[in-house]
Design goal:
about 220 residues, 7 helices, 8 strands, about 45% helix
Length: about 220
């Protein structure tokens, strides 16, 4: 039931956000109007990135100031890139880092397999669900090794609708709703400030998945 409700909430939120983004792209004056009223309405919308992949420079700055960090990703590639490397090297040391990645183990009700099915529609490289599962496993193993000496890090896996990416700190969040017809890196990304309605939605997405998650696989023996 939790997964069902989670899916409904995610779908409704994604539909509303994508409609808003469609309007913003088509009318620059409307975007300035929405930005101007975001403070009054309490939504907390700060800016919109046309592509998720263009957020990393700003994200690195926000991570460097964060008291805590929460990440829920569709496969976790961003966690292996330069934007997160100061966390794994120990140059940054927030109070805690919580990471959620999809459960990569095959099962009849796997939401990761459903996402893999979506990817196959436009990317022939994902002909089998095993490719996406292996990518998630590789990122989990990377994190298990990179953080083995850290006590403020926890990695868990979830099997819920794989519909969005959340990267949140105590100050702001980057919220991306995945499009079923394109890769997440090409989807628009919302930058939302705390406190605000959209920031609350981002944390709610993460916390719901966290409460229904399980410990991720351990690092392999060397």
């Amino acid at each position: 039931m939790t997964a069902f409700l989670f899916g409904i909430i995610s779908s409704l939120a994604a539909s509303a956000i994508l409609l808003l983004l469609g309007l913003l792209r088509g009318s620059r004056p409307l975007w300035w109007l929405v930005a101007a009223f975001s403070r009054c309405t309490g939504t907390g919308l700060g800016r919109v990135y046309r592509h998720q992949s263009s957020t990393e420079q700003d994200m690195a700055r926000d991570l460097s100031r964060a008291r805590w960090i929460k990440v829920m990703a569709g496969r976790g590639n961003v966690l292996t890139r330069e934007v997160f490397s100061p966390l794994w090297s120990g140059d940054l040391s927030p109070e805690f880092i919580q990471v959620l990645l999809p459960d990569p183990e095959p099962r009849g009700d796997s939401w990761l397999e459903k996402r893999s099915h979506d990817l196959r529609r436009f990317d022939p490289g994902y002909e089998t669900p095993e490719l996406l599962r292996n990518q998630v496993r590789a990122n989990m193993h990377y994190l298990a090794h990179a953080t083995r000496a850290q006590h403020n890090f926890e990695l868990r896996s979830f099997n819920l609708p794989n519909t969005c990416r959340v990267i949140a700190t105590d100050r702001a969040a980057y919220l991306t709703f995945y499009n079923s017809s394109d890769h997440g890196r090409n989807s628009p990304c919302l930058y939302v400030r705390a406190p605000g309605l959209l920031y609350f939605i981002a944390l709610q997405q993460f916390d719901t998945a966290w409460m229904n998650s399980s410990p991720a696989l351990p690092a392999p023996r060397l």
